[in-house]
Amino acid sequence: MVNLDSLESKPNFMRKISLFAFTVVLGVFLLSFGSSKATKDRPEERLGWKLGAQAYTFRLFSFAEALDKLDSCNLGYVEAFPGQTIGAGSTEKMGYQLSPEGRRLVKKLLKEKGVTLHAFGVVGAKDAEEWEKVFAFAKDMGIKVLTVEPSDAHLDIVSGLCDKYQIKAALHNHPEPSKYWNPGVVLKSLEGRSKRMGAAADVGHWMRSGLDPVACLKQLEGHIVHLHFKDLNEFGNKNAHDVHWGTGKLPLQAVIDELKRQKFKGMLSAEYEYNWKNSKEDVRLSAINFRKLIK
């Protein structure tokens, strides 16, 4: 360690060099300490996984309130959804229609909570002009992934905008009979299109459709850019409801192992669609269970 008292006896330029060295060493130490703490609290980050929540989990609340709940669950990423009231004094809704003032407020709220707005969806559009507005909004807000369910006629539009704005679009699988419920349909839709297009794998909805989530992940290998994460009390039942991760029918450890094998990098959005008014604790305990298995 640098002895600061001894610097007075050194020439001016030597004192500057010594102080610079001390500052660098101190900075490296603090950075290392912060990084190790983050890795300990969020072990998924070592794998390149961004554990967060789909704000729809807290759809009965404002976006500002949803951020408070995410923060209390030790989640650093959020997937916003269209139509949620911003809150914090604003009655505007989340989406490309947000005014410049509304966008600044959202960015301010995110910065205050230390939460990253990584994804947005599930979003659609009626035509090419509206899709352009969605992508321009995502670019302005720093969003990396749009979760989408476009019609066949819009797939090429979305593909072109992915490359124009350098934003990923992930095809999301609502349960059967929705368009993308089966991984085979997703793969067919991705053929010949932008490399920035991929799958938003919803493991819970696969279970509702009677599909093995691990087998579906294997089928989509190389194309998964985003996940909606949930565990359910029943398999093959469209009316199954969410339970704490690791306590339901999802083969959680097998899913984690498969994502590791594929070297998946990206966000896992907790989407807890049950106990709507008081789900924060459910999400917090689910994240704890998930992180225990990773460790």
Automatic annotation (TrEMBL):
Per the UniProt record, the lineage of the source organism begins with: Bacteria, Pseudomonadati, Bacteroidota, Sphingobacteriia, Sphingobacteriales
The family database entries (Pfam families) matched by this protein are listed as: AP_endonuc_2
Please name the source species. Answer: Sphingobacterium paucimobilis HER1398
Domain (Xylose isomerase-like TIM barrel) spans 86-281
Tell me the protein's name. Answer: Xylose isomerase-like TIM barrel domain-containing protein
